[in-house]
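Our consortium's second objective concerns turning raw sequence data into structural hypotheses that experimental partners can test. To show how far this objective has progressed, the report includes one record in full. It was chosen at random from the queue rather than selected for favorable results. The single chain below, 128 residues long, was entered without modification.
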Amino acid sequence: MRIHHVALTVRNLGVSIAWYADIFDAHVIDKYEKHGLEIAQLKIGNAWIELFAGGESGLPDYRKTLKGDISTVGTKHLALETDDLDALVKKLREKRVAFETEMDTAHFGGRYVFIKDPDGILIELYQK
């Protein structure tokens, strides 16, 4: 078994596709409608992300920070691995991406930092 994709609900499909393309060089693999939903599948490196459009309520306040969300049962974040975290962080700061945390070390080795997408979804950027 292996993970095929991660699905995220976003407010605006076009805005999110543009953001993921700009920030992570994501490529649209497929875009379609099903059951009244707009859906896009994106590829970032060897990772697949599925975006569902139409998130109307947004994240509740208590889930908008990493610390606040950790105590809520459910999926926490999307983690993407990079070979050069310092270069990626520099690029994202230049693009004014919202950072949730400062750089930190992982207990199992490596370093990480958290950012937020346009809808406040937490994304961990990790390097071994």
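The partners drew two points from this record. The first strand starts at residue 6 and ends at 10. Residues 1-54 form a domain with the 2,3-Dihydroxybiphenyl 1,2-Dioxygenase; domain 1 fold (CATH 3.10.180.10). Both points have been shared with the crystallography group to help prioritize constructs.
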